[in-house]
Amino acid sequence: MRLFSNLLRPGLIFYTMLFFAFIYLPLALITVYSFNANPVDMMTWTGFTTEWYWQVLGFRTTVSETSMYIESTGQLIAALRNSLIIAGSTTLIATILGTALALALYRYDFYGARLYRVLMFMPMLVPDIVLGIALLIFFVNAGISLGIATIIIGQCTFLIAYVFIVVSSRLAGMDRSLEHASADLGANEWTTLRKVVLPQLMPGVAGGALLAFIISMDDLVITYFISGTDVTTLPVFIFGMLRRGIKPEINAIAVMMLAFSFIVASLGLYLRSRQK
After folding, report:
1. In this predicted model, what pLDDT tens digit does every residue of 99-154 receive, in sequence order?
2. CATH number for the domain including 99?
3. Which of 25, 41, 236, 248 has most Cβ atoms within 10 angstroms of its Cβ?
């Protein structure tokens, strides 16, 4: 048995290193090649430059015409603004409804509660392309014009499930004796919810909200189907750029989005540690 354990441990270590390399090595390559000075062939390193970041931000310097890949920085800024508006709106709606659903299923045992919990997982299990086509058919048949409103509604259909799961996991570890003590001391249900339940639940609510915000910012497939022709989000804008080939500007945008996601995730971990 000891011999088997000694042989298994190096294999597990190697598998762990291979797993993390498979995940993070492509991100490292994108980061490195976003500083490549070659404007034509991304995989051929010709020197270090930060030109592509300045170009994405609209501060063009003296470069060759072949590197002018982003035709309009204004379009990029508009796509980013749309993504932030949609992500903020969907995060607010999904957090409120997902938290309310988690509290309702946690507090009350009614007929069909288990089935309702299973149905809450369905938006996460359904493939994005199927959900996107279904939402497109629904909006078209309902006569709803495609735009920011349909994107918000469509994203809320599955982001509520993410918030619900995160908050439910937090509720499973809560001690209800504090709620009973609050009721014994004369507090009504609203006061108990505001002063006892929500402070304990806040790490889960904050985690679910940040998760919903990041997923909304990165969503492409569902948004592509229900965005229409007048509204473009940042992932859809990047997808349109990819049709013309992978250029250094795309790598720069990807690195900036990666840094933004890292900052949001770090903020969530910080708030959770402060709450503890």
Report:
1. 988 888 887 777 777 788 888 888 888 888 899 999 999 999 988 888 899 999 99
2. 1.10.3720.10
3. 248
Virtual CA dihedral for 98, 79, 69, 48, nearest 10 degrees? -50
Long-range contacts formed by 52-59: CB under 8 A, 24+ apart: 52/248, 52/249, 52/251, 52/252, 53/252, 53/256, 55/249, 55/252, 56/249, 56/252, 56/253, 56/256
Burial category of 199 from C-beta neighbours within 10 Å (exposed 0-12, middle 13-18, buried 19 and up): exposed
Residue-by-residue DSSP string for 133-167? HHHHHHHHHHTPPPSHHHHHHHHHHHHHHHHHHHH
My answer on whether 229 and 155 are in the same domain is yes
Q: What is the pLDDT of residues 33-87, one digit of tens each?
A: 888 877 776 777 788 888 888 877 766 654 444 444 555 667 778 888 899 999 9
Full residue range of the structural domain in which residue 33 is found: 2-67
Domain count, the chain: 2
CA distance 156 to 97: 9
pTM above 0.85, yes or no: no
- The answer to whether 104 touches 117, Cβ cutoff 8 Å, is no
